[in-house]
Specification:
Layout: H1 12-23, E1 26-27, H2 39-50, H3 63-77, E2 87-90, H4 92-104, E3 110-115, H5 121-127, E4 131-136, H6 146-152, E5 157-163, H7 175-185, E6 191-195, H8 215-218, E7 221-226, H9 227-230, E8 239-242, H10 245-258, H11 264-274, H12 278-281, H13 283-297, E9 304-305, E10 313-317, H14 326-337, E11 339-340, E12 342-343, E13 356-360, H15 365-376
Helix pairs in contact: 2-11, 3-11, 4-5, 4-10, 6-7, 13-15
């Protein structure tokens, strides 16, 4: 086969979840909660199904959900997006990111990403004939270097893809970082694709710096979020995109042909559920308690925890345990110690290995306690 993606195999999330299952290990690898969403959400889905809302939704998403998204974004970030022309409901953030790239990147265009980078970005760019320009974030701080960004920008730079709170490093951009991005892209035609799927999971009193907060940046940004992270329903695969009208028009040209539209009763249920803002407002404290519980449980271990400022991930070094490559160590940890994690080298194109693992703490306390007990014996 003449592969379009010769470098690509099976995603690390699939590989590690499968290994965890095979070994009966506690799965702290792929990011998903092991607890359920609230019954009231399921009741709303059943309600809309029984009421007969089981046919195609409008291409951009059901009206009430787009209204609810507009309301939330305006309330939190102060920017008004028109539900008619500037908001689209997607089949998760993955489809949103892929569609944004497909709609806006021409063959030969350069797209800047920051490594470690979420695994779906580069293949999406390459499939459009785009060139991935990788800038490095280095442990332990993983901060963007704006001089390096400025130096990487060329006349071919079409897009820059960012992600804060960041998977896998659990760093959160500050207002200064956002100002750096605005300055670096000022006066260029560069589109910012901002992956904000963990927007509600920021810790220790931090504020999520959405591109929607900055009018200048918002004017050239496609902002992506996901209900999977916010409402504990990663398997529902529903997310959304907000962008200024001209960008959204291009996005929808592709969206209408790669999914057309998303599950109708689920969208209506999410619109009802979003009406109570405390549900997303409470998420940061909810996950901060889990981060702290997991961290306290590992205090007696030989893992060295890096700061987790947001997301539901915790990075850990293991240099006090061994100097094995992270892929070998994580396999041994899964098989012999019964805890699966993600090797952070999977987020680097050249497999750069800083001997760091990513653990997902979106788990019940009983799961985290059992995992910590095992990890303290390593
Ligand atoms: N971007 C990032 C940074 C993610 O962590 C994830 C999911 N883990 C996604 C995108 C994809 O989200 P979804 O499941 O809604 O497609
Ligand atoms: N985004 C999730 C993670 O980082 C995994 C999603 C997937 O399996 N594609 O773990």
């Amino acid at each position: 086969i003449d592969s379009r993606l010769p470098q690509v195999g099976t995603t690390i999330f699939t590989v590690m979840s499968r290994l965890a299952q095979e070994c009966g290990a506690i799965n702290l690898s792929q990011g998903f909660p092991d607890f359920n969403a609230e019954d009231v959400l399921f009741e709303r889905v059943a309600h809309w199904m029984r009421a007969g809302f089981n046919q195609y939704a409008p291409m951009a998403g059901v009206g009430p959900l787009r209204e609810a998204i507009a309301h939330k974004v305006a309330a939190l970030y102060g920017t008004a997006y028109d539900p008619e022309t500037e908001i689209t409901v997607t089949a998760g953030a993955t489809q949103a990111l892929f569609t944004a790239v497909a709609a806006l990147v021409h063959p030969g265009d350069e797209v800047i990403v920051f490594e470690p980078v979420y695994d779906s970005y580069a293949p999406a760019i390459e499939l459009q004939g785009g060139r991935v320009v990788r800038l490095q974030l280095a442990a332990p701080g993983y901060r963007p270097d704006w001089d390096a960004v400025a130096a990487a920008i060329t006349p071919r730079t079409r897009m820059i893809m960012i992600n804060s709170p960041h998977n896998p490093t659990a760093t959160v951009w500050t207002a200064d970082d956002l100002a750096g991005l605005a300055a670096a892209t000022r006066g260029t035609g560069i589109v910012v694709v901002s992956d904000e799927v963990y927007e509600h999971i920021v810790f220790d009193g931090r504020r999520h710096e959405s591109c929607a907060r900055d009018a200048e940046l918002a004017a050239r940004s496609v902002i992506v979020s996901s209900f999977g992270k916010t409402y504990h329903i990663t398997g529902w695969k529903v997310g959304y995109v907000v962008a200024p009208r001209e960008l959204m028009a291009e996005f929808r040209k592709v969206h209408q042909f790669n999914v057309f539209t998303v599950n109708t009763p689920v969208q209506l249920a999410l619109a009802d559920y979003m009406a109570d803002a405390s549900r997303h407002e409470g998420l940061a404290a909810f996950y901060q308690a889990k981060r702290d519980f997991f961290g306290a449980g590992l205090a007696g271990s030989r893992f060295e925890l890096l700061p987790s400022a947001g997301t539901y991930f915790q990075l850990a070094r293991y240099r006090a345990i061994c100097d094995e490559p992270d892929t070998a160590f994580v396999e041994r940890l899964t098989r012999d110690s019964g805890v699966a994690a993600i090797p952070v080298s999977a987020f680097f194109a050249d497999g750069r290995d800083e001997r760091v693992l990513r653990f997902c703490f979106a788990k019940n306390e009983a799961t985290l306690a059992a995992a910590c007990e095992r990890l303290c014996r390593v």
